[in-house]
Specification:
Blueprint: H1 18-54
């Protein structure tokens, strides 16, 4: 029974400490938010420009 792997064969070497996962997650989340801020900012400026040109 102690020799059963429960489907985790070879996964021990690929384990990354949780603190590194959290840091990577934080960087990814910040990049994601920054991207959408730029997208919505550009969209707002585009709508203002269109409104001024058509006025």
């Amino acid at each position: 029974m102690a020799s059963e792997s429960h489907g985790h064969v070879g996964h021990a070497a690929a384990h990354v400490p949780a603190i590194n996962d959290a840091a990577e997650h934080q960087r990814t989340f910040e990049s994601f938010i920054r991207f959408w801020v730029y997208v919505f900012g550009f969209a707002a400026l585009l709508l203002i420009f269109i409104a001024l040109v058509n006025a």
